[in-house]
Amino acid sequence: MSQPTTTTTTTTNLTTKYASPANAAFAIDTPLPSPGDGNVGDKTAYLAALRTAVADAQATINKELTARMDEDKARDAAAGGGAGPAASVDDVKEEENYGEEVQEEEED
Fold this sequence. Notes:
Elements: E1 12-18, E2 26-32, H1 40-78, H2 85-96
Main location: nucleus
Pfam family, one: Gon7
Region (Disordered): 67-108
């Protein structure tokens, strides 16, 4: 008498969640193919899908967080906490210098 064979398929997901007391929460849940049982083709397909899912998640996260930052700025401005036009100039300057160390110029 032969023994029955059992095949187990595991599901893998790339999941991210964001929650804030001031903004709406969001979640990203991307299903990925099974990495397989050692077959190089399965592993390659899994890694390609993972790479795509991570890039897509990063783009979605950036879009969502930027929208929430804009909501926060609008809420602060409506509450009188905004710094006016000078704040947008500073935002532009900060964006141009993002990731760089900037030396402030001294006034005489």
